[in-house]
Amino acid sequence: MSAIEFDKPSLLQRIVPLFRGFDFLLLLFIAMLAGAGLLAMYSAGFDHGTRFVDHGRNMLIAAGLLFLLAQIPPQQLMKVAVPLYAVGVALLVAVVLFGITKKGATRWVNVGVVIQPSEILKIATPLMLAWWFQRREGNLRASDFAIAFVLLMVPVGLIMKQPDLGTSLLVMAAGLSVIFFAGLPWKLIVPPVVLAVVGIFLIVWFEPQLCADGVSWYLLHDYQRTRVCTLLDPTRDPLGKGFHIIQGMIAIGSGGIWGKGFMAGTQTHLEFIPERTTDFIFAAYSEEFGLVGNLFIIVGFLLLVWRGLAIAMHANSLFGRLMAAAVAMIFFTYAFVNMGMVSGILPVVGVPLPFISYGGTAMVTLGLALGVLMSVSRAQRQLPGGDGHIPHG
Q1: Is the pLDDT of residue 1 over 50?
Q2: CA distance 244 to 360
Q3: Within 99-221, where are the H helices?
Q4: Which element (helix H / strand E) includes 279?
């Protein structure tokens, strides 16, 4: 009996293999951003009930999901792509038919518990597209890209109908990144980009006419048109629709190079910044930590995106390569859009800043995305005969 007990592996010996192949450089970049997020949330949310404690709890939940998904090989993740996408789209249809409306938006549905199905599609859509291109590997035609666009536009269209411009933008960015990295020809990429640039130029040029009272934009809801017009001229309604943008820019500018100091932001703590623990927390962070603090989190996001693209480059399957690239671009889009809207260069669309903004559902989604990224990295590192690491360059 004693011999048996002697040979029994210790708890540490059983746990260590679960972390074998983990990308600790990726974890370092995540920890950098998570630390900045906890610091920002403590200052901005200390008087918002349990926001700071809840933010830490949400991070732990995301870390647990990252760890669990990292144990699943990408080949197994492929098996859930189709059912997860199908369930997600079905739930979006259910939202249209009998969804729950809050603050003028119908984004939730009761399935025993109230959920927001659009969050599922942030992961399910790139999974589905990566599965599709893996199935078509070596035999790609123009029609395959057309089908991929249909698979993407179905959830995007249903989410925009809710309406939820921010989430639809994130789902579209994740899907388009998969389609791009699957080998979409440049001749199909350049024309839409040129049209978009020309369209933005025309909107800015004709802003007085387009934003005049009584003018309707047929492709957008009135509140979405108001957001664009407010972006172009926040002083049009400084105490109403333009208040968010104006106060955000004041807070960022007042931070200067070094910031006003931890918990010393006047715009933040005198409650001039609306939604200071969620969508506009970047303004609160900027006021207290200044340009130096901003550079820290910007570099942190760039390193995270770079690491994701490096993992994609060395993935051992097309599915893994496309999913890793999609996750990297999800984080880029989140950070770029949030910082852009708070800084007054993009419309306010309700996109949180990863790790920094408060929000349980968004944090869970990010944990799942990072778990997929870690799974792809582990699969490459654990190749038989491989060198066990992904190059740093």
Answers
A1: no
A2: 23
A3: 118-135, 142-160, 165-181, 186-205, 207-210
A4: none
